[in-house]
Amino acid sequence: MKYYMGMDIGGTSARMKISREGKEPWEYVTKGCTLSTSGYEKAKLCYEEAVLPVLKELKITPGDCGGLCIAASGIDSPGQEEECRRIFMEMGFDEKVVTAYNDCEIFLRLSKEPSLVLVAGTGSIVVGKSASGRIVRSGGWGHILSDEGSAMDMGKRVLRAVGDHMDSRKCCPILYRMFKEQSGITTLAQLDIYVTESILDKPRIASYAPLAEKAAKEGERVAWEILEECSEALFALVRDTFQKVFELSGAPQSLFLWGSVLTRNKEIEMRLREKCIEAFPQLKVAFPGISALDLALTLAEGKQ
Fold it and tell me: In whole angstroms, what is the distance from residue 282 CA to residue 105 CA?
């Protein structure tokens, strides 16, 4: 039976949605990974573990697929796009049915005008499209070089603030209490070991990001500063990409927002909107009317 599949693969989770004639779409969530960070072999293993058991359960094969669209973080070049496609072709998918996009870039398909997309999840990136269709970007080069304003970045800022509190360099007792309750860590020596062992585990570090908003709501000044720093960092990505598109074909008309930092942290979202509206009054700022997963499935079906 012919089927169509859309995938949204982030650094923390991978989602897939399969449509078959006469049946309700089937959705599945599993562990994700980032091609640019994990590398080809680890990404290949991750993708296979996500896809092949599902196809087996549904009693369908890669060869039955009529269209597969992948929106994945870590596709940062044409070469990585081909690597992503090759992984799925090696599973048995026909090269003619497989398309792959950066998970941020896929939302640019929603507008024919010059536009921007900001994705702030475990990592962060802004991608822009000119009137001629040329794609430009800012950020998204991993948590060492960039990913500013992301959950990973926010989590690191929380850890630094807690460390400074333990070291009597800052005073943030509310943030410290919340961190201690979540991690069980009570000393600076324990924190040092924990960070050293976990610094490459992006989801683990990012899991502390929500503490900033929670502590801010209880009046923690340091937590408010973290939220402001992250919203300013995200705005800088938008501003720089806006300028790149403007130089190519004039001002972008739309900014689509996506990612857990913006969907779950209302304070960050509100501050970012205010900064964008003040700097670019003509820019329409909104969440897409469709998820990356549903858009990927729509593209796989050839309906967009």
Answer: 22
State the distance between the two ends of the chain, measured CA to CA, in whole angstroms: 23
Question: Where would I find the H helices in the chain?
Answer: 35-38, 40-58, 78-91, 142-145, 151-166, 173-183, 188-198, 202-206, 210-217, 221-249, 260-264, 266-279, 292-300
Are residues 35 and 126 both part of a single domain?
Answer: no
Closest to 295 measured CA to CA, from 304, 287, 286 = 304
Domain that holds residue 34: 3-103
Examine residue 46 and state whether it is found in any structural domain, yes or no.
yes
Structural domain includes residue 214: yes
> Could you report the per-residue pLDDT of 73-121, keeping only the tens digit for each?
878 788 899 999 999 999 999 999 999 988 888 899 898 899 999 999 8
pTM over 0.85, yes/no: no
